[in-house]
Amino acid sequence: MLVSFLLPTRTSETNTEWQDLINALQSIIELSSKKFDWEVLIAIDNDDTETLAKIPTIEKIFEPHTFCSCRIEIMERQGYNNLEKYYNYLGELAKGEFLFFWNDDVIMVTPNWDEILKEDFTLFPEMICLFPLEYNYATPHFKTHKFLLHHAFPIIRNCWISVLGQISKFFMNDTYVMNVSLGSFDYSRLVVSHHNIPQTDNENYYHSIALSQKRENEILKSQRWTDEIVKDNLLMQKYLWERNNAQDKFVYNNVFHLPEEKDLLGLGIVSEQRAGITNIETPPLVNYFCSKHGEQKGHFFYNQIKNMPISEIDIEALELGYWM
Fold first, then answer.
1. Which of 8, 55, 125, 266 is the right S-S partner for 43, CB 3.0 to 4.6 Å?
2. Dihedral angle at the C-alpha atoms of 48, 85, 95, 19, nearest 10 degrees?
3. d(CA 171, CA 150)
4. Is the pTM for the entire model greater than 0.70?
């Protein structure tokens, strides 16, 4: 099976457009080449009576097709701040070669997306993750800034779970996957459309977004975030290093196409400002070194190894923080 779409959904005060979910599902069905088998795994809360009542409608969408299937899982409510639990659960059930993070308000734009997805991963065999291009019609910034994103709705290889033990450790799944795969992700030719319904009059929507952003900022500033990202990025790179047969010049920061995106192990997100996303000012690995050895030594060592091939970096020592 080519790919598994992972899709948690819930009808709520901030997500009342039932038709969004239908459009999200129909777009991937209608725009597929129908040459590959794939599946959609949907998680629904057990107290979400509105969505539960629509299960027959969801299943009916897939009935005429032999190349795709749908599996619906009814779960205990976890809430948005525990969104990673939905993706982790669905990921364990997934049968696809690739796992595609999907939302109930996303629409596939690229025709024959499945053929292109297969081709893109074939072109980048050393990459663990690809990101589609996302544009947001309904955001207030779109008309003036053409609000485009490059680090949302990741597509990961199914070996991700066996390497790390889960898909994500934080509710900001896109950000977590991006940071863990930095040095080993690239960009797919797929295009998706998100936030297609204007929310200008929905106070609950903006209140919910503000709370989520506040929580996300708190996590990004936490020591736990830095420690987990550094550890998981190293575990992933170590796995890829072994899998890719110890390529002599597999340098973490060589995989990016834009000069401003080059940074130590790809852990600095300096290019995010181009897409209008809040910057993470300091690369997590710098924070990690500074927390272990003090600011002066931390920055010194950062500068010493930032261009080193992975073959010259002692992974075990870095994981333990015994560099100095």
1. 8
2. 30
3. 19
4. yes
